[in-house]
Structures are given as structure tokens and as C-alpha cells.
């Protein structure tokens, strides 16, 4: 687990934006400060997962002193964003699929530079997120 610095910015007529000095180009936003913090954790976690999958280096967290020494960062409010950076242990599983579905999976994975396992893991995560988002949306609608 590592703590990275996120910088929250707020312009008039906009949501709260969050950027990460250690990860140029990674940005997210939230409707309020709590939402911005939650979105920061999610965005940074997803980015780091991608780096791990691609076997790219994960930068060491900068110190608050180093981040705030850059005049461009002084307009933001610094927050600590904790994320897991360790590669997750892979576990071998055996699944049974219709032959035509397996052929489609393999063709898609190959065309997109993925392994079969990598594609299946991404597809499962995507489906879980979609169902959770749908469930959370329904919960919000019922409580309104």
C-alpha cells in the first residue's frame, strides 16, 4: 500500500477536479469533496492496475514538500490517496465454455493484445462494476 498525493482543484461552475503529480495525465472529478476523494482512489487504483498488467514501473510517491515546491501545484489542496500497488496473486481456474464462445474470446483477446486470462479478468471486472453501478443507481432512486 502506498500513499500518493492528489491535488483537488475547483473552478467556478465546475465539479472538484483531482490530479496526481506523480501520474501526469491521470485526472478525475467529483461532485463534492467526498465524491472527489472517492473518485481519486478509484482512478488511481485503476491506473496502477493497468501499469501492473502492462509490467510498467510504478513511481515512488513524491513527498508533500516536493509536490508543493512546484508553483503549479500550489493552487490545489493536497490529499493523500492510498492505493494498493502490489501485483495480485494469480490463481489458476478451470472453466467450461461453449466452443464458439471460446473462439470469440481468443480472437478478441489476440486482436487487442490480451491473453485469454487477461481478457476474462477484465470482462468479469467490467460486468461486476456495471451491476454494482446499476444497483447503486437503483438504491439512490429509491431513497430519493
Please sum up the structure shown.
The chain is α+β, with helices and mostly antiparallel strands and 144 residues long. Helices cover 47% and strands 17% of the residues.
Task: Give your account of this protein's structure.
The protein has 144 residues and is an alpha+beta fold. The protein folds into 2 domains: 1-87, Double Stranded RNA Binding Domain (2-Layer Sandwich), CATH 3.30.160.250; 90-144, Arc Repressor Mutant (Orthogonal Bundle), CATH 1.10.1220. The protein is 47% helix and 17% strand. The chain contains 4 helices and 4 strands, in the order βββααβαα. The chain has helices spanning 33-53, 64-69, 99-111, 116-143, and strands at residues 2-10, 16-19, 27-30, 77-83. The protein has a 4-stranded antiparallel β-sheet with strand order 3-2-1-4, covered by helices on one side. A hairpin with a 7-residue loop joins strand 2 (16-19) and strand 3 (27-30). Helix 3 packs across helix 4. The longest helix has 28 residues, at 116-143. It starts with a strand and ends with a helix. The relative contact order is 0.13. The mean pLDDT is 91.
